[in-house]
C-alpha cells in the first residue's frame, strides 16, 4: 500500500489523506477535483460522527425511558418536556450555575491576563523575555494528572477547596499557557506602526494596549475565548478533586449517571446532558461568524 | 516655534549596526525638509529619532525651544504620518482623526469642529463614518494626514507617505501635500527614497547615505552643485552621466571625445591625471535642432532613442570606463531608464534632447554640450572639484 509519498506534480495540498496516494499522478484540475471530493467525503464523515450522537441525545432528552431503549431513533409519542424539569430538580440548575460562574470568571481572567502577558512578551524586549515565554510554553505540556495531588494540597492550604475562586484560579493557571502562546503569535502579526501611531497620538503603554492593540486583536481573542469557554466548561478532573462539594455541570452529570442505574430515569439524564451542551453550542453559534470574519478580513494594507 | 535641531546625533542599534553617524541638521520653522537617500541609508531612523520612537545613542534633539532628547513621543508635540498609514482599524474615520484629541481630553465640540475642518480640507467629509478597511489607498492616506493635522503640532513627520500609492495618485497627493504645507505653514520633515518627490516638495533637501549627511541644500543647488559623486548620481532623473576623463592641458579626453576644459576650472592640479566628469543629460542638446555656434559638438551613435513626447532620451555608448556610484541605482521605482549593460570598458550615456530630434537607433547624432555646465569630481575622494562661482539656478 503506497501510503508514504505522493508524487503529484499538480501542486495539490500536502494535507491529502494517504488513501488517495494510489492515483496520485493526475495533473491539474482533475487532481484538484479529486482532492476536493475526498476532502468533502472526510468532512461529511466527520460531521456525521459529531451530529449523530448530538441528535441522539437531543431526541432522547424528550423521550420516556421506555422509548429510549425501545427504539432509539423514533420520534417520541409525546414530547417529555418534564424530563428537563426533573433534571433541574435533581440539581442540574445548581450545577449549571456553578459552571457558569466558574467559567465566566475563569475565562474573563484568562483572557485579560493572557493577552496582557502575551502582548508584553510579543512587543517588549527585556531580559528574561524568552525565559518567561518558554516557561508558559512548557506549561502547555504539563499533564493535569501529574499536578492533581500537589494542586489539591495547594488549594486546601489556601482554604479554597470547593470554592468558586479556588476553581477559577486553577482554571486560569491551566488556560494561560495556551492563551499566551496563541495571543503572542497573534500580537506578533499586528503591525507595529499602529501602536507607534497611538504613542504619537498621546497614548500611554497601557492605553496603547487597551485602546488600540486589544481591539485589533479581537479575532484572536474570540477564537481563543471560545476555545477557553469550551475547555473550561468541559473540565471534569480538576473540579472533581478540587470542588467536590460545589460540583460543576460535568460532575453533576456524572453523579446523575451513577444514580440513574438505580432510578432508571434516563430521559432526565439526557435532558441534563442537553442542558450541558446548549451553552457551548450557543457560544459557538453566537461567535463563529465573527471569528471567521475576523480571521479573513485584512485590518491593514 | 517649529524649529527642529539635531546636534551630532548618532544611532547604533543593538547588534552594532551604526544607522546614523554624527548628523547635525537644523530645520527652520515652516520649512519642508526632505530626507532622501537609498533604502537603508538611515533616513527613516533620523525621522524616528525626531519622533522619539527610536532612542538617540548620542547627540541632542531640539524641537521648538526645548531639548527633547529623552522625552516620550507624546510629549514632543509632533505628529507622524506612516508609510502604511497605521490607521486604527477598529475606529471609523472620524474617530481615527479625533483620537489624539480625545486622549488629550479636548472638549467634544472642539474635537468635532476640528475633525470636520480637517475632513473638509482633505475631502473626507463623506467618509467620516467609514472604517479604514472600506477606504481606498488615497483616502486612507488622507485620513492619516488628517489625524496629524488636527493635532496642530509643531511639526509633521512623514515617512514615505506616498510610496504605497499608485503612480497617478502619488503625483496627485504630492501636489496636495505641497498645497497643505503652504496652507498650514507647519514644519514638515519628509522621508522618501524618490528623488523626484524630494526635488518637487522640499524647501531644502538633505541627502543621506550610510547614515551620513551628504549635502543639505535647496533642490536647485543639489542639482546644479552636488558636493560629491553620490549626490550627483542620486539627484536628477535620468541620472547624471559620469565618466573618467583625462586632463591634458586645456583638453578633456574621454573615449574618443575631446572637449575643451571650461575656463575658470581648477583642474590645473589634475593635469596629466584623470578626473571624473559628470554631464547632466539635460545639458546635451541635439546640435541639428538647437544650433549654438559657441558650443562644442560631439558625434555619437545612438544605441537607443526613447521619445517621451516632451523630450527624447538618446542613449549612446562612450568608449571609457563607467563610474559606478554605490547605492545610486538601487531603486527600481525611481523612474530612471534601466541602464544598458555596457560592454567592458564602455559607459552608457543619456542625453535628454528636444523631441524634434531626428535621432534614430543606429543613426549618428551630433550633440552640442556646454562645458561650463560640467561637473568634475576627484577620482579618489569622490568630492567635487570646486571651480567657478556657480549661478544658483539657470534655465
Structural features, described:
The complex is a heterodimer of chains A (301) and B (395). With 301 residues, chain A is mainly alpha-helical. Chain A has a single domain, classed as Orthogonal Bundle (MetI-like fold), CATH 1.10.3720.10. Helix content of chain A is 74%, strand content 0%. Chain A has helices at residues 28-60, 65-70, 82-123, 129-140, 144-157, 164-189, 192-201, 205-216, 218-233, 237-242, 249-263, 266-296. The longest helix of chain A has 42 residues, at 82-123. In chain A, 31% of the residues are buried. Chain B has 395 residues and is an alpha+beta fold. In chain B, the strands form four sheets. A six-stranded mixed beta sheet of chain B has the order 6-7-8-3-9-10, sandwiched between helices. Chain B has a five-stranded antiparallel beta sheet with strand order 13-12-11-14-20. A five-stranded antiparallel beta sheet of chain B has the order 15-19-16-17-18, with no helix packed on it. In chain B, helix 2 (93-103) crosses helix 3 and helix 2 (93-103) runs parallel beside helix 4 (137-149). Chain B starts with a strand and ends in an 18-residue tail after the last strand. The model of chain B is unreliable at 329-342 and 390-395 (pLDDT under 50). Chains A and B meet through helix 7 and helix 8 of A and strand 6 and helix 2 of B.
Amino acid at each position: 500500500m503506497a501510503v508514504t509519498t505522493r508524487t503529484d506534480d499538480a501542486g495539490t495540498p500536502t494535507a491529502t489523506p494517504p488513501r488517495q496516494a494510489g492515483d496520485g499522478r493526475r495533473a491539474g484540475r482533475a487532481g484538484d477535483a479529486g482532492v476536493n471530493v475526498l476532502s468533502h467525503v472526510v468532512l461529511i464523515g466527520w460531521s456525521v460522527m459529531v451530529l449523530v450522537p448530538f441528535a441522539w441525545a437531543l431526541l432522547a432528552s424528550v423521550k420516556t425511558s421506555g422509548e429510549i431503549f425501545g427504539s432509539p431513533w423514533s420520534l417520541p409519542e409525546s414530547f417529555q418536556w418534564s424530563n428537563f424539569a426533573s433534571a433541574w430538580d435533581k440539581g442540574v440548575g445548581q450545577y449549571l450555575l456553578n459552571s457558569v460562574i466558574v467559567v465566566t470568571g475563569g475565562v474573563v481572567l484568562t483572557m485579560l491576563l493572557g493577552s496582557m502577558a502575551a502582548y508584553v512578551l510579543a512587543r517588549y524586549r527585556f531580559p528574561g523575555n524568552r525565559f518567561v515565554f518558554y516557561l508558559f510554553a512548557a506549561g502547555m505540556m504539563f499533564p493535569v494528572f501529574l499536578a492533581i495531588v500537589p494542586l489539591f494540597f495547594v488549594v486546601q492550604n489556601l482554604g479554597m477547596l470547593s470554592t468558586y475562586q479556588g476553581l477559577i484560579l486553577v482554571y486560569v493557571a491551566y488556560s494561560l499557557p495556551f492563551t499566551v502562546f496563541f495571543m503572542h503569535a497573534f500580537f506578533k502579526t499586528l503591525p507595529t506602526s499602529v501602536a507607534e501611531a497611538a504613542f504619537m497620538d498621546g497614548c500611554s503603554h497601557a492605553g496603547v494596549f487597551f485602546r488600540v492593540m486589544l481591539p485589533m486583536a479581537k479575532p484572536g481573542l474570540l477564537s481563543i475565548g471560545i476555545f477557553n469557554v469550551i475547555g473550561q466548561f468541559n473540565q471534569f478532573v480538576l473540579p472533581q478533586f478540587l470542588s467536590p462539594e460545589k460540583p460543576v455541570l460535568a460532575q453533576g452529570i456524572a453523579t446523575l449517571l451513577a444514580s440513574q442505574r438505580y432510578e432508571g430515569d434516563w430521559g432526565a439524564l439526557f435532558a441534563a446532558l442537553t442542558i450541558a451542551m446548549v451553552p457551548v453550542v450557543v457560544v459557538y453559534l453566537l461567535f463563529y461568524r465573527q471569528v471567521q470574519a475576523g480571521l479573513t478580513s485584512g485590518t491593514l494594507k | 516655534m517649529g524649529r527642529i535641531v539635531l546636534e551630532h546625533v548618532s544611532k547604533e542599534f543593538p547588534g552594532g549596526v551604526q544607522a546614523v553617524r554624527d548628523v547635525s541638521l537644523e530645520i527652520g520653522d515652516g520649512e519642508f525638509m526632505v530626507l532622501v537617500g537609498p533604502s537603508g541609508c538611515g533616513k527613516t531612523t533620523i525621522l524616528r529619532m525626531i519622533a522619539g520612537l527610536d532612542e538617540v545613542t548620542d547627540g541632542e534633539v531640539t524641537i521648538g525651544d526645548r531639548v527633547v532628547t529623552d522625552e516620550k513621543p507624546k510629549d514632543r508635540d509632533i505628529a507622524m504620518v506612516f508609510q502604511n498609514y497605521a490607521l486604527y482599524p477598529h475606529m471609523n474615520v472620524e474617530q481615527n482623526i479625533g483620537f489624539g484629541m480625545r486622549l488629550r481630553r479636548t472638549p467634544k465640540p472642539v474635537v468635532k469642529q476640528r475633525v470636520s475642518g480637517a475632513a473638509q480640507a482633505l475631502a473626507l467629509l463623506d467618509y467620516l463614518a467609514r472604517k479604514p478597511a472600506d477606504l481606498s489607498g488615497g483616502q486612507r492616506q488622507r485620513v492619516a494626514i488628517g489625524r496629524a493635522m488636527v493635532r496642530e503640532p509643531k511639526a509633521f513627520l512623514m515617512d514615505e507617505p506616498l510610496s504605497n500609492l499608485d503612480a497617478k495618485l502619488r503625483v496627485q497627493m504630492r501636489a496636495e501635500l505641497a498645497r497643505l504645507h503652504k496652507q498650514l505653514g507647519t514644519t514638515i520633515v519628509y522621508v522618501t527614497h524618490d528623488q523626484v518627490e524630494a526635488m518637487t516638495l522640499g524647501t531644502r533637501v538633505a541627502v543621506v547615505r550610510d547614515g551620513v549627511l551628504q549635502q543639505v541644500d535647496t533642490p536647485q543647488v543639489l542639482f546644479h552643485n552636488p558636493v560629491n559623486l553620490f549626490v550627483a548620481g542620486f539627484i536628477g532623473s535620468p541620472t547624471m552621466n559620469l565618466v573618467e576623463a583625462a586632463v591634458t592641458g586645456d583638453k578633456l579626453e574621454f573615449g574618443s571625445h575631446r572637449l575643451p576644459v571650461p575656463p575658470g576650472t581648477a583642474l590645473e592640479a589634475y593635469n596629466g591625471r584623470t578626473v571624473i566628469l559628470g554631464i547632466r543629460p539635460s545639458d546635451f542638446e541635439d546640435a541639428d535642432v538647437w544650433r549654438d555656434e559657441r558650443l562644442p559638438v560631439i558625434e555619437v551613435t545612438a544605441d537607443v532613442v526613447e521619445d517621451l513626447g516632451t523630450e527624447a532620451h538618446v542613449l549612446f555608448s562612450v568608449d571609457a570606463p563607467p563610474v559606478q556610484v554605490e547605492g545610486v541605482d538601487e531603486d527600481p521605482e525611481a523612474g530612471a531608464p534601466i541602464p544598458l549593460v555596457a560592454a567592458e570598458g564602455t559607459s552608457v550615456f543619456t542625453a535628454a534632447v528636444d523631441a524634434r530630434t531626428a535621432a534614430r537607433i543606429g543613426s549618428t547624432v551630433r550633440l552640442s554640450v556646454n562645458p561650463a555646465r560640467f561637473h568634475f569630481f576627484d577620482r579618489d575622494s569622490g568630492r567635487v572639484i570646486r571651480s567657478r562661482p556657480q549661478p544658483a539656478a539657470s534655465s
